[in-house]
């Protein structure tokens, strides 16, 4: 801004014209404002990873860090909003009232089961993507890892016996994602702090856990670990023992994703079963399941086609794109790519945008997806 003429364009009276245009056609907000590349990172601080319920203000450093990752990896502008409201209905009202400013909303670190109802309420009432990263970011990367592990081992996802510990937001979303990949609900066994989730507990558990209740006499996860193909841990350190790993099927897939200490260390798991494939949430071990492989790129694709939601097809497209990048070459210690892999942005974002267009949720279809992919590949990470 160099002179009074520039000032008059940037503010009054110049801003009056785009305001009037948006009144006539609200979609022009994507043309005349920053809305189309702006995501709100929103929390109430009730379930901050590794820290618990620390409240809105104390969660601000985490949200600011998330905003940095959006910009660094996806070239997405974002702003953190810490909302001091624990009541889910009131939280939804506040977020909905702020939503016109943004092209998308990334929910973060909200306790279960509130996070489920909050996301559902916002997704059904708003016309912009609402994405709870603790759920779906984790699920997408887990799906990519499992897809490649089964490909490497020659196993079919539909035939896998899956044992999971933890029934929080990430665990439930991961299991739902595995169902989309073809896993069978009757082959999934889930445990929480009170033991195995079984039908005779239905009166005392929420509907998100209840969907995975098994008809079984067993009461503990260790009772059903025999011949399990997959262990999915999103619970606490020590939840998986060496004896449980020894019971598993040949070439077991162990996703011990508790942070900062996994359910079992890779050293202990491999000592019990040298044929195991191990994933953790830590950067100091191979096969780190890290949400940064997903959220910047799924939002990049959703924003660029002005999608009004992030649906299951877009999530599956992201998982498949991530898996495909790591499959060249595929190895036990290389099931998923490194977050700094420059191919992630063009590969994942373009497939997400394509899925949005194919499922009819894109306001602004991209006419040349190859040219779009090429333009993304020229962005620096």
UniProtKB/TrEMBL annotation:
Divalent metal cations. Prefers magnesium or manganese. It comes from the Bacteria. Its cofactor is Mg(2+); Mn(2+). Gene3D superfamilies: Malic enzyme, N-terminal domain, NAD(P)-binding Rossmann-like Domain. The keyword Metal-binding applies. Homooctamer. In the C-terminal section; belongs to the phosphate acetyltransferase and butyryltransferase family. This is Malic enzyme.
């Amino acid at each position: 801004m160099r002179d009074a003429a520039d000032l008059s364009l940037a503010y009054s009276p110049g801003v009056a014209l785009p305001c009037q245009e948006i009144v006539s056609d609200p979609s022009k907000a994507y043309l005349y404002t920053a809305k189309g590349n702006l995501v709100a990172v929103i929390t109430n601080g009730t379930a901050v990873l590794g820290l618990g319920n620390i409240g809105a203000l104390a969660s601000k450093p985490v949200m600011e860090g998330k905003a940095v990752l959006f910009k660094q990896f996806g070239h997405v502008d974002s702003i953190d909003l810490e909302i001091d409201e624990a009541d889910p209905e009131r939280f939804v009202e506040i977020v909905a009232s702020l939503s016109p400013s943004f092209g998308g909303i990334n929910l973060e670190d909200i306790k279960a089961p509130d996070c489920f109802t909050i996301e559902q309420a916002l997704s059904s009432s708003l016309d912009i993507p609402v994405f709870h990263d603790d759920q779906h970011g984790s699920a997408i990367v887990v799906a990519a890892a499992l897809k490649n592990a089964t490909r490497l081992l020659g196993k079919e996802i539909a035939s896998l016996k899956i044992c999971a510990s933890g029934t929080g937001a990430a665990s439930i979303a991961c299991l739902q994602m595995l169902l989309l990949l073809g896993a069978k609900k009757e082959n999934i066994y889930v445990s929480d702090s009170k033991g195995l989730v079984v039908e005779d507990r239905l009166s005392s558990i929420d509907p998100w856990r209840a969907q995975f209740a098994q008809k079984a006499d067993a009461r503990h996860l260790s009772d059903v670990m025999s011949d399990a193909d997959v262990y999915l841990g999103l619970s606490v350190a020590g939840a998986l023992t060496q004896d449980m790993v020894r019971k598993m099927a040949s070439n077991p897939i162990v996703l011990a994703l508790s942070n900062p200490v996994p359910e079992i260390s890779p050293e202990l798991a491999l000592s019990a079963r040298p044929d195991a494939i191990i994933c953790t949430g830590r950067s100091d071990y191979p096969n780190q399941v890290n949400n940064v492989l997903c959220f910047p790129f799924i939002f990049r694709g959703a924003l660029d086609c002005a999608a009004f939601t992030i649906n299951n097809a877009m999530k599956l497209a992201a998982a498949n794109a991530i898996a495909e990048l790591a499959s060249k070459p595929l190895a036990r210690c290389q099931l998923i790519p490194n977050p700094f892999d420059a191919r992630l942005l063009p590969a994942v974002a373009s497939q997400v945008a394509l899925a949005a267009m194919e499922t009819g949720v894109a306001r602004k279809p991209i006419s040349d997806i190859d040219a779009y992919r090429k333009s993304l590949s020229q962005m620096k990470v």
